[in-house]
Write a structure and sequence with these properties.
Shape: globular
Strand content: under 5%
Mean pLDDT: 77
Largest sheet: 2 strands, parallel
Oligomer: single chain
Low-confidence stretches: none
Helix content: 25-40%
Number of strands: 4
Number of helices: 6
Length: about 210
């Protein structure tokens, strides 16, 4: 049985960093993993692990921009239209990466405060948010005098309530327990190992036990 984990997200979200840490964790756990790059704009030379399969061998953004005169956005659209041929219905989990940058200390030597001071209690409400926040402002009541979008907001809230679409796992790559938690959720989501056949015990005739005395 083979399994795949698709890592997606906007530029700078930490996809490459997570993939590197994920593969390192798999190797430390005696599990085999291979990196497959599906980003035609990625700089694979900066990857710590060389991709076993690289979409750039088929099409890459730099060639499209040079040969067709497209800009970065138009070039990416062209690349995706050329290589994205299937849509997969798959389970997913949302990860809030770079939690190691969350700090309430402006003097933090790690530089986490460069993105603004944030206490972990301020982040917690985004990890498993209350859908009612869509209908009301945080810490305030809904305005009954402006019901224009009330029905739409309520429909969206109900959708999220019925299907847990908005929740995040915090990922701090400086904390091994945080990475292990994310990996455990990935294993559970893709049902890793559930179809594996149990290992047969050694044959009793192979010397595992001494010959019985008559």
């Amino acid at each position: 049985m083979r399994y795949a984990v698709l890592v997606t997200g906007p530029a700078g979200a930490g996809k490459s960093t997570f993939s590197t840490s994920f593969l390192t964790h798999l190797q430390a756990s005696k599990r085999t993993g291979h990196l497959v790059n599906l980003d035609p704009a990625a700089d694979t030379e900066s990857f710590e692990y060389a991709p076993a399969i690289d979409i750039r061998d088929l099409i890459n953004l730099e060639d499209v921009m040079n040969e067709l005169g497209y800009g970065p956005n138009g070039g990416l659209v062209y690349c995706f239209e050329d290589s994205a041929m299937v849509n997969l219905e798959i389970p997913w989990i949302n990860i809030m990466s770079k939690m190691d940058l969350v700090t309430s200390n402006p003097e933090d030597p790690t530089g986490g405060a460069r993105n603004g001071m944030r206490a972990r209690k301020n982040i917690a409400r985004y990890l498993d948010p209350d859908p009612l926040l869509l209908a009301t402002s945080y810490g305030s009541q809904a305005n009954p005098s402006n019901p224009r979008f009330h029905a739409l907001n309520q429909a969206i809230v109900q959708l999220i309530e019925d299907h847990p679409l908005v929740s995040f796992l915090p990922l701090d790559l400086t904390n091994s327990d945080s990475l292990e938690t994310v990996v455990s959720h990935i294993d559970y989501t893709m049902q890793y190992g559930e179809d594996e056949e149990p290992k047969e015990p050694h044959d009793l005739d192979e010397g595992d036990f001494p010959d019985s005395m008559e």
